[in-house]
TrEMBL record:
Record organism: Terasakiella brassicae
Entry keyword annotation includes Membrane: yes
Transmembrane segments: 12-29, 50-72, 78-98, 139-163
Name of this chain's protein: Fatty acid hydroxylase domain-containing protein
Keywords from the UniProt entry: Membrane, Transmembrane, Transmembrane helix
Disulfide bond listed as a keyword: no
Length: 262
């Protein structure tokens, strides 16, 4: 445990790079869907968007979630720091599920979150495609939860590493054997599970909000098992953002401020 706390940066970077490379290889070897666009066309924009979000968050926010967790251990605000590490991880996961639902239901938040849904292909880089303002709001929300419940720093680090890895795994365009998918999705969010959430059919977009464990969607009745048009032929994205020009970085950054596709 001490090792994780002391080597947080290296662990985060290694898991990110390792899972990203593994997913990129699996997408090449066992693709689930035919790509509509060449990787290079989308990957630069999706990565650059992530980099801008990370730099903005570093410049604007004076804290990171784990520093808030250390603070809360010494200065509990509402609850004493008594949650076991696993409970802390599950609590964070449920709160991020609720935040995701709010991102869809509250119009001003949807303006930010729709960038994630406007990607016209679905692959490992879709999992990192969040508007910089959404990244900052998300961090603030997470820090508030950590402060209120005095969540253990170890829970926070593990949750962030798992969330990061799972976001790349469940957005990856690779085909898991269907029987394996059926077993895994009883517990965790698989690529086929989450792809439904990226359907351009609104009822499907507004389902399968979970990122890590699949329980929350089942409990809250937001679970859709499969897309009505099938995984290989379903339309990915949003009906009103179909122009490939929208995949460019500049268009992505201003997208929340556009009423509809210009
Ligand atoms: Zn969403």
């Amino acid at each position: 445990m001490q090792f994780i706390l002391e080597n947080e940066g290296v662990i985060r970077l290694s898991v990110f790079a390792g899972v990203f490379c593994l997913m990129a290889v699996l997408e090449t070897v066992r693709p689930r869907r035919k790509r509509s666009f060449a990787r290079q066309k989308r990957w630069f924009s999706n990565f650059a968007n992530l980099a801008i979000g990370a730099v903005c968050a570093r410049l604007i926010l004076p804290w990171v979630p784990v520093s808030v967790a250390f603070y809360a251990q010494q200065n509990p605000v509402l609850f004493e720091p008594v949650l076991p590490v696993v409970v802390g991880i599950l609590l964070l996961d449920f709160c991020i599920y609720l935040q995701h639902v709010a991102m869809h239901k509250i119009p001003v938040l949807w303006r930010l979150h729709r960038l994630h849904h406007a990607d016209l292909d679905y692959d490992v880089t879709t999992g990192i495609r969040f508007h910089p303002i959404e990244i900052i709001l998300s961090l603030l929300f997470k820090m508030a939860i950590i402060l209120i419940f005095a969540i253990d720093p170890l829970s926070v680090i593990l949750f962030e590493v798992i969330l990061n890895a799972m976001a790349m795994f469940n957005h990856a365009n690779f085909k898991l054997p269907l029987k394996l998918d059926a077993v895994l999705r009883l517990f965790i969010v698989t690529p086929d599970f989450h792809r439904v959430h990226h359907s351009s059919i609104q009822a499907e977009t507004n389902s399968n909000y979970g990122f890590n464990i699949s329980l929350w969607d089942r409990l809250c009745r937001t679970y859709t098992a499969q897309p009505q048009d099938g995984h290989e032929t379903m339309q990915i994205g949003l009906e009103y953002f179909r122009d490939p020009a929208q995949l460019r970085l500049g268009k992505m950054i201003i997208q929340p401020f556009c009423k509809k596709e210009p």
